[in-house]
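Problem 12. The chain below contains 198 residues. Write out its predicted structure in token notation.
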Amino acid sequence: MSVLSVAFAFAAIAGGEVEKENVMTISADQSTISWYGEKVTGSHNGAVDVRQGNIVLDADGNLKSAYVQADMQTIVNHDLEDADTNAKLVGHLKSDDFFGVEKFPYAEINLTKFEKGKEAGKYLATGELTIKGKTNPITVPFTYNVEEGTLTATGAFTFDRSNYDVRYGSDSFFDNLGDKVIYDDVNLEFTIKGMAKK
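Solution.
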């Protein structure tokens, strides 16, 4: 017997019930993550692709956990119209100065606690964010709904890049940068869609 079968059998013998979970697969094609960062002399914005993930609901339909993996190799910029300038920025973001995507191709968000927010329809998730092999606690405010087997979650949060060894232009690591400072806060907005397994 498999380990899972043994667990089910033991639960049955003990008179307990095995908790039913609904594992929903995140649709990479229908999910989006946008980023926005500021520096002394301006700002940039763009996006990164969702690669894979899942959302788990408990037997009562409440959120239990969520895992999202982003493909850092797909970083793009949306505000620079000149192709050469755009490519230069994206190449720099992919380099070791920033996210080092060759060594660290994926970033991950793993959320394990969910509670209702202060406003109706608002929720708060807590868990961990991993970038460049560094993991730190994260809090994510969001809203969600489930319709015809599809869960849609939207929200936004900010992370401090200095906690993930993303050092370039950061006054957390370097002095006397003047107007070359790039602020540590990176803002993310997301829409995540999870599909019930058929």
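Discussion. Helices lie at 3-13, 83-94. Students who got a different answer should revisit the alignment rule from Section 12.3.
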